[in-house]
Amino acid sequence: MLLKPLPGRDEGVPTEDIEVGWHLHPDSWGHGYATEAARAVVAREFATGTRVVHAVVFPGNEASMAVCPRLGMTHVGRRSDWYGGEELETFVRRADAEVRRGGR
Q1: This model's pTM is above 0.70
Q2: What is the pLDDT of residue 98?
Q3: For residue 67, is pLDDT > 80?
Q4: Residue 33: pLDDT above 90?
Q5: Domain 2-100 -> CATH class
Q6: Is the pLDDT of residue 71 over 70?
Q7: In the chain, what are the domain boundaries?
C-alpha cells in the first residue's frame, strides 16, 4: 500500500497531488485486501485535510482499475501529468464526496 505525492513529469520532483496505490503478491489478489487497505489510508489522508486523492493505473490493468470505483473514485480518463509523462488511467476521489456519501 502506498500513499505519497505523485512525481511530476520530471520524476525527481514531487507534485502536490497525492496518490494512493497498491502492489500485492499474486497470492493476495481477489480477496479485497487492496480495497480494504486503500479505503483506510484514503480516509486517514482526508482526516489530515487533504481534499483530493488520485490513483493512477497502467492501461490494461483491469484488476486495479476495478478497485478504484470500490473506493468511490471517479475515472477521469488518461493523463500524462506524472511519472515522466507516461499516459496512465487516472481516478480521483474528493474529500467532499466523503461527506455527500455519508462517510462511506
Answers
A1: yes
A2: 55
A3: yes
A4: yes
A5: alpha beta
A6: yes
A7: 2-100
C-alpha dist (Å) from residue 55 to 6, 27, 79: 9, 22, 11
Q: Which amino acid is at 26?
A: P
Residue type, 55: A
Report the distance separating Cα 59 and Cα 10, nearest Å: 21
Residue 55 scores a pLDDT above 90: yes
Amino acid 82 reads: W
Nearest to 13 by CA among 83, 80, 78, 79: 83
- What is the sign, positive or negative, of the torsion defined by CA atoms of 11, 93, 77, 1? positive
Main-chain phi, psi angles of 70, to 5 degrees:
-65, -20
For the chain, the distance separating the N- and C-terminal CA atoms, rounded to the nearest angstrom, is: 20
Q: Cell 502536490, residue?
A: 16
